[in-house]
Every structure is written in structure tokens, then in C-alpha cells.
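A reminder from the course coordinator: this example appears on the midterm review sheet, so study it carefully.

Given structure:
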């Protein structure tokens, strides 16, 4: 899905796409109607696809008499076992909790853009401080990602946080669904919403983890904003304001499903620092250091996090045919943690 905003309503807007080889045909959507937020904010969303073959694609946003608004390109990686055309590594950059930290987020995005041209971006939530502040979505989130030429080419896999949670569930600038899944080559990605304590999400997660689309993949990865196991937070907020109970169902109901179905990796934000550890054969990571004020006060001890880095950071994931390589970088571009996951490890 491509998302863009204009300051006025445009006529006959659609999105078209084609593979950049073999003179493949141009596919075009129907005319798109915007969501009118106010008289100067019109948000358009267009589906690119279905796409079934691995390749490099170009997309263009068109209005009226074939006037091009913008164009860009991306690469698609289907789940095709033994596909000889699949190019590894598939590179993914990850951020979380950049809210109210624009200068830091800018530096991290710049560093990531100099290191790689990612195929995907993951964001584990709290991209803005106030979900209904339109300026923050522009200046604090999308500007850095587009100024350094990332968001135009790489789909964003977004898990909603507590600050960007929309109780109306309209999600103007991100995904339309609170929980969803997708396949990237030999990996299955499951995105959950730690804001919504709803049995429907439990049922969906159980069915997803039991599905052939998930069971047959080499790696199962979950993204959820609030970690099942947190250790650092503001002590007064944690104890007196009862914020320790936020998203508690992620630990009490979701984590047992992770264990039962052999989830390999869980990626979270919310806590503003970096942690990694392994519990019940699942690697748990917290990457909430993309700009928000850092958390230094320990409020719990789960005894399995062997890596703690109290610094701002981003992550780079490389997907290979037989392994996942993970690296975390600080503001200076130095590696603060790295590990590998192999098939069956």
C-alpha cells in the first residue's frame, strides 16, 4: 500500500505499477477517493498489487490527464521455495519510539541510509508523541524517512504503540488493520497490537501461528510494541500509576503461544533503551531507542536479558536463505550488539 497526502482534493487519482523488465504491462488501480481530515489535509491510499513474482517494480501516482505526481521503485520478495531469482540478503532497518526526539531520529535515519538501501522498514511503535497531531506525523516521522530516501522505496511494517494508538482505529497514516501478517521470502512476520485487549486478537494469533503459511516458514518473527517482559521504566509510573499493567496480556496470553508454536524472534519497543535475551527458545529484543528520552531506572528483573544498552540506536536485519543476521548501531554508527539465528536454532 502506498500512502500520500495532498493539501487539496485532486481529480481522477490512481496508482499504476509495472515490472522494470521485459516490457511488462502497466497495471492501474481504479480512481482513489481521499480521506478528508480537514480542508488542507487529504490522505490517499492505493494498493500496489497483487504481485506474485520476484522482481524490481516501479510505481507512479497519477491524476487527471496522466499527470505524474511522483514515482519510485521497490523490490518484491515472494515466498517461492528454491527461487533462483531471489537475491540475498534482504535488508531491513528497524526503529521504535522516536517520538519527541526528532534530532536523534534524523541522525539515526541518516546513518541507516548511508549503511544500506533497505528493502523493508520495521517500526515497533510510537512514531509520534500524539497520534492526532498532523504536524508530528509530517515533521517527526515521514520527513526523516523521505528526506533520506527510505520510505519511497521500502514498505513500512508498522506496529502501533500507545502514543500513536488511534481509539477510532482509523490509522490515517499507517496500516488500516491493528494486527496482520506477511511473508518475506522464508520468514513469516506477525504484527500485533498491544493496545487492544480483545479475545479476537488471541484467536487470530492462535490461528495464524497454526496456519501452513506460518508453520512452513524457516523463521517466525513477531513485532509488538509493549514487550512481554520489561525491566526499565519510570518507577512512579510503573508502580503508583499502575503502568506495569499496560499490555499485560502480551505476557500472560501471547507469550505462551510464542513458546507453543516456536516463535524465533520477538521485536518490541516502548522501553526506551536496547535489550536482548533468550527465554523459552525465543529471542526477545527491545529496540525503543530511536529518539525518545532514555529509560535508566530498573523496575523489574526477568533474569534472561544478557544484553542491555542504554543508548539511542537502530537495527539492521539481513535475511539469508539459511540465517538471520542482526546488528544494532548507536548514534556514532558503532555496533552495540549483534547475533545470528540459524534454521532450527
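Designed residues:
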Amino acid at each position: 500500500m502506498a500512502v500520500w497526502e495532498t493539501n487539496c482534493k485532486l481529480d481522477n487519482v490512481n496508482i499504476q505499477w509495472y515490472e522494470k523488465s521485459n516490457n511488462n504491462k502497466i497495471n492501474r488501480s481504479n480512481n482513489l477517493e481521499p480521506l478528508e481530515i480537514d480542508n488542507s489535509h487529504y490522505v490517499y491510499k492505493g494498493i500496489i498489487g497483487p504481485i506474485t513474482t520476484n522482481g524490481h517494480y516501479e510505481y507512479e501516482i497519477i491524476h487527471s490527464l496522466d499527470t505524474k505526481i511522483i514515482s519510485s521503485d521497490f523490490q518484491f520478495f515472494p515466498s517461492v521455495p528454491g527461487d533462483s531469482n531471489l537475491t540475498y540478503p534482504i535488508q531491513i532497518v528497524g526503529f521504535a519510539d522516536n517520538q519527541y526526539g526528532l534530532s536523534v531520529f534524523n541522525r539515526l535515519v541518516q546513518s541507516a541510509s548511508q549503511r544500506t538501501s533497505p528493502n523493508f522498514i520495521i517500526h515497533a511503535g510510537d512514531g509520534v508523541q500524539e497520534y492526532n497531531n498532523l504536524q508530528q506525523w509530517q515533521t517527526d516521522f515521514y520527513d526523516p524517512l523521505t528526506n533520506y530516501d527510505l520510505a519511497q522505496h521500502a514498505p513500512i511494517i508498522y506496529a502501533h504503540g500507545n502514543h500513536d494508538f488511534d481509539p477510532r482505529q482509523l490509522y490515517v497514516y499507517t496500516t488500516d488493520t491493528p494486527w496482520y501478517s506477511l511473508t518475506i521470502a522464508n520468514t513469516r512476520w506477525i504484527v500485533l497490537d498491544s493496545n487492544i485487549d480483545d479475545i479476537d486478537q488471541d484467536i487470530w494469533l492462535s490461528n495464524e501461528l497454526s496456519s501452513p503459511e506460518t508453520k512452513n516458514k524457516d523463521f517466525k518473527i513477531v513485532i509488538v510494541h509493549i514487550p512481554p517482559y520489561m525491566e526499565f521504566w519510570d518507577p512512579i509510573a510503573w508502580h503508583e500509576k499502575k503502568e506495569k499493567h499496560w499490555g499485560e496480556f502480551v505476557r500472560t496470553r501471547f507469550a505462551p503461544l510464542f513458546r507453543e508454536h516456536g516463535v524465533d524472534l520477538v521485536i518490541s519497543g516502548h522501553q526506551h533503551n536496547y535489550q536482548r535475551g533468550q527465554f523459552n527458545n525465543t529471542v526477545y529484543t527491545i529496540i525503543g531507542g530511536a529518539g525518545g528520552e532514555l529509560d535508566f531506572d530498573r523496575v523489574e528483573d526477568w533474569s534472561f536479558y544478557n544484553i542491555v544498552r542504554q543508548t539511542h540506536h537502530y537495527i539492521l536485519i539481513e535475511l539469508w536463505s539459511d540465517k538471520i543476521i542482526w546488528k544494532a548501531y548507536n548514534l556514532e554508527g558503532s555496533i552495540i550488539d549483534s547475533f545470528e539465528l540459524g534454521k532450527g536454532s
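The domain at 90-342 is CATH 3.60.21.10 (Purple Acid Phosphatase; chain A, domain 2). Helices lie at 102-115, 134-147, 199-210, 212-215, 235-239, 248-260.
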